[in-house]
From TrEMBL:
Region (Disordered): 39-69
Pfam families linked to this entry: DMFA2_C
InterPro entries (alphabetical): Class_I_gatase-like (IPR029062), DMFA2_C (IPR046540)
Limits of the N,N-dimethylformamidase beta subunit-like C-terminal domain: 76-423
Domain of life: Bacteria
Name of the molecule in the record: N,N-dimethylformamidase beta subunit-like C-terminal domain-containing protein
Amino acid sequence: MEQPSPRAGGTLTLRAATDAPRFRVEFHRCGDGLTLSAKSPWLPGADAPPHLPAHDWGRDGTGARGEPLPAWPGHELPAPAEPGVYVAVLVEGDDDGDRTDPDRTTPDGREAKALFVVRPAAPSARILYKLPLFTYHAYNVSGGWCLYDHPQPGDVPGAPGVSLHRPGGGTGATPYDVTNFDPYDPTPRQTFVHWDGRFVAWLARRGYPVDYCTDLDLHRDGEELLAPYRLLVSAGHDEYWSDAMRAAVSRHVAAGRNVAFFGGNTCWWRIAFRDAVTFERTGFWHEHGPPENELTGVSFRNGGERDRDEHPEPVGFRVQHADHWVYAGTGLRDGDVFGLEECLVGYECDGAAFDRAARPPRVPTGEDGTPGGFTILAVGDCAAAGWGLGNRAATMGLHTRVGTAFTGTVFTGATTDWPRGLDGSAAVARITANVLDRLGEPPLSPSS
């Protein structure tokens, strides 16, 4: 999909290579399940070879051995009229009709699918949900490599960068760590269906009005994109951030608006674009820029990773400050644990450094860059389960930036698997609703 987020009622360009004489495209809207929105007419099929991962596959290129690589054929199609998250499903055909019958019950697939967002013609909600397109592509191995197994610079043209203009980016390709299975969820990590799909479905069931965008929209449009919204939401695994993204979100909070990170390993890698569609790593944010926890309040440096099922003991969050508005209606008390049955903490999580020898409630030391006003509302002790980095504890919490005229709040759930808890844990669902309702509401007027 050449435009990952066309406007409602506009056009989009789909590029596809197939050995079938013709194909058509179905657009399915993602909510509480998939809803067929539109179908294209039959389109002429044409084959084309894979390009290298750093190439724009919509342009002629050159392969690793100097061979010419023709551009993948493009087809301009009307974008769906209703804003939301969509998956394009490609159906191959011939003179006898359909040759393929793709699975239409899930947005996930290793081929013949493409994820995209339809943005409204004008903002239509107070909440903006951002899909982590850059993280999807960082793990996407279409063309031969990704940012986790790339050749050395100079060995192959374009390495180590990766392009947004190639198959994949949430669905339609294979993620690098597809073999790093989640013992609690059979869907592949680093795909839309694993984390974001769950959150999008929950929002739809709860009836939340939400607009959607991608990383690329935030990177390109920055403050102009965010200005109409009270709350920016990110969930799951939002690992790759550009300077433009970081600056725009920081200014969003400084202007008195809010952010909710229902995920972990957030803002870990700093990236830069070498052209309009190809990006590469420049280093970890905490080593090559202001540390990520200056924005998020937490860092992977003090949380860590539970791979596969090497540490099967589940980890939940232990409550502190149970009288905080985040816990309203949960019935939780200080010392209670939630999310244990859902194995909520992991597979990657973020934490704020605190003194483990001190008695609860835990208080950040600030030695790792966590803002002084960050309040730890719950602790997930990874160390007790045998894994983790640094302080080895996920810390759910928030901080509020108080200025002369504006007050903006940043909430963090501090674990990638927060979306999985939405359907299994009443506490996770209620905390999520409390955050969305409180931080997504209009600000009080000066006379209130």
